[in-house]
Amino acid sequence: MVVRAALRLGFGTASLLAGSWALRALHGAPAALGASPAEIDAVARRSPNYQDGEFVNLDPASGVSLDREEQRQIIWDLIGSRAASRPPGPIPLATPAPADAAAAPLAVSWYGHSSAMIEIDGYRVLADPVWSRRCSLSHAVGPQRMHEVPVELDALPAVDAVLISHDHYDHLDIDTIIGLARTQRAPFVVPLGVGAHLRKWGIPESRIVELDWHESWQIGELTLVCTPARHFSGRLFNRNTTLWASWVIAGPRHRAFFGGDTGYTKSFAEIGMDHGPFDLTLLPIGAYHPAWPDIHMNPEDAVRAHLDVAEADSGLLVPIHWATFRLAPHPWSEPVERLVAAADPAGIRVAAPKPGQRVDPDTTSTFDPWWQL
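^ thats the sequence. predicted structure below, dont judge the formating
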């Protein structure tokens, strides 16, 4: 009887703890999911890229849907590479530029992963800001950041636009969006359909600019052009109900290209011809895997993409989509090491800042392999 009572107590306690953990894990999840497909459809269906309830890539992309064997292999790879895919020591942070400093003709501050402040001819554009500890629908589970944010959200300088590439959690974060709505006055410029998530989170319609591929929006002399990418979207079970994009950021004298999250695509050459050459490119180099070669570029793909949109002897390539979240089993510093090795023979200038560091293409000349911890 005593044993049975103890077992019942043990199982009851375990169930209670598991239930408590599940509640914590799910806390905030329904809101983080954003809009439903029905709420998105009314806007999305005006696009020629929206077919049978889904957006489609211009280049067909494999790796969007994985079979069970591929999923098992990736999980096994992630478990087996746990040590190598994490930094061997603390990731150094740079002191961000003062918030009251004037915006430069051309500069970029990288805050980790794909979050960056791009300065163009006196304007500031904040791209894919994610300040939460996890890129997940939950505060308790999901990929956790491997370094602290280098600057608090409310300490950022005033921006002219907040730019979003797509609705995956490592690029669109509910807490960061709500925080920016409180601390900034800038509009949120997003691909078609993503605006429905923002409206669900209470962002006023007047602050949402929603664009299809090849559409543009202008503030003063700054032009933002929504350009194609090769990827997918979705925040849980529903895929591709919102659009994914790269972005042209063009001032009167300088141009930057923000790749967001993408596989290599023939669209880069077309973007370069239509909007380039670019003085600055921010291109993803991490989270690649043989199972999804078409939706995440590797470092060599980033070099090809840069050559498509910029002049090798003048444009500066700044890598993004690496170092902050563990999203693939490759070694932590491998993306930047491969990028540097591939860029040098191609004649491409690369600046790989520490999180928080500001890079000015006109004054950045020293090479700092800070990732060799």
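The first strand starts at residue 50 and ends at 51.
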